[in-house]
Design brief:
Elements lengths: L7 E7 L3 H9 L13 H10 L2 E7 L10 H21 L3 E3 L1 E2 L5 H15 L4 E4 L1 E2 L2 E2 L6 H9 L3 E5 L16 H18 L2 H4 L4 E4 L6 H14 L10 H5 L3 H5 L5 H8 L3 E3 L6 H10 L5 E2 L9 H11 L7 H15 L3 H5 L1
Parallel strand pairs: 1-2, 2-3, 4-5, 5-8, 8-9, 9-10, 10-11
Antiparallel strand pairs: 6-7
Helix pairs in contact: 1-3, 3-4, 4-5, 8-11
Length: 340
């Protein structure tokens, strides 16, 4: 049932497409993979209960590469075909394409097919693959393909191999996901990806992780220790050359903040006043987007997210209008005819 009053647009909503769910059930991944209940019908029912006019769905961790290049290629194709068919049947459910990374050649060809032929709303990438974050030179060929198409790229966190042994008595995604998003964004910044591939629209999950809290620290170190240190304190400048500090003889904090404002930031799991206050200081308010993280975030969590975002202390009404709907319509213009 379509509710004409619905206005919110959810850019962080996951799917468990039939081929993907079957592959996860059959794979020997060595860990317990969550498989929450999902179907297009359940998604639409949840959306109607929370005033969501449209959702951009994506595949979550671990993605479609489960160890074999050939199987990953086939699984990504099947998933993207199923997603396109879902959108055709239910236009309110958009989808970004999944790619068979870390095989870059296969990923390039599937990105071209999904964006050029299937009409995908963008591409969904993990923060990194096999320990290499997206700013690594290995991914430049794929980034060029996405840049040529001015693609929206939803970046979803994963668990970096180096942190899998960390045990805190809670699920690793509680902390490691926002930390991993922070690492990925910082890597993209210092690898100069934001300027080398300026047409890509990168969306960071979960308010950018801890990036809003750490932005000044990153900018200050980049400026006064990695770019223009005193002559007798050149350790970081000499030992940590980056594409950004090589490009700009003098990096400034203003430059770093300006580059960080090029990201889009979603609200999934960061809806409270403290978190949104930090996001709003760092982010361009035209680039903050509503996200629910359903169904991995249970509906009771979505209830609380919406309640907290409706609090004027978190989002003043004029900002909430942009976050709920208007910013997403600028990023996904196809939805304008769907939600009109």
């Amino acid at each position: 049932m379509t509710r004409t009053k619905s206005h919110r647009i959810d850019v962080h909503c996951h799917s468990l497409l039939p081929s993907y769910k079957k592959a996860l059930q059959e794979a020997d991944l060595g860990v317990n993979v969550r498989l929450p209940r999902w179907s297009p019908e359940l998604a639409l029912e949840m959306m109607d209960r929370h005033d969501i006019a449209a959702s951009i769905t994506s595949i979550s961790v671990p993605g479609t590469h489960l160890g074999d290049d050939g199987k990953a290629k086939d699984l990504a194709r099947r998933c993207n075909d199923e997603a396109a068919a879902m959108t055709q049947r239910h236009p309110r459910l958009g989808a970004v394409a999944t790619l068979p990374l870390p095989n870059v050649e296969l990923a390039c060809r599937e990105a071209e097919r999904a964006l050029d032929q299937l009409g995908a709303d963008g591409v969904g990438l993990l923060t990194g693959y096999h320990g290499k974050y997206l700013g690594h030179a290995d991914y430049d060929e794929l980034l060029a393909v996405l840049n040529d198409r001015s693609a929206v790229v939803l970046i979803h966190p994963a668990v970096h191999p180096s942190t899998r042994a960390v045990t805190l008595g809670v699920p690793n995604f509680v902390l490691e996901y926002p930390f991993d998003t922070t690492r990925a964004a910082t890597n993209l910044l210092f690898a100069d990806v934001l300027e080398r591939f300026p047409n890509i629209k990168f969306v960071l999950s979960h308010g950018g992780g801890t990036l809003p809290f750490l932005a000044w620290r990153i900018a200050a170190i980049a400026t006064w220790q990695m770019s223009q240190p005193p002559e007798d304190e050149r350790f970081l400048k000499d030992n940590f050359p980056t594409a950004l500090t090589k490009k700009y003889p003098v990096v400034t904090t203003d430059l770093v903040y300006a580059l960080l404002k090029r990201f889009w930031y979603d609200t999934a799991l960061v809806p409270d006043q403290a978190a949104m206050g930090a996001v709003r200081v760092l982010a361009d308010e035209n680039r903050i987007l509503f996200g629910s993280d359903w169904p991995y975030a249970y509906e009771v969590i979505v209830d609380d997210e919406v309640k907290r975002l409706n609090d004027e202390a978190a989002l003043p009404p004029e900002v909430r209008a942009r976050v709920d709907r208007l910013n997403a319509l600028e990023l996904f213009p196809r939805l304008k005819t769907i939600v009109a």
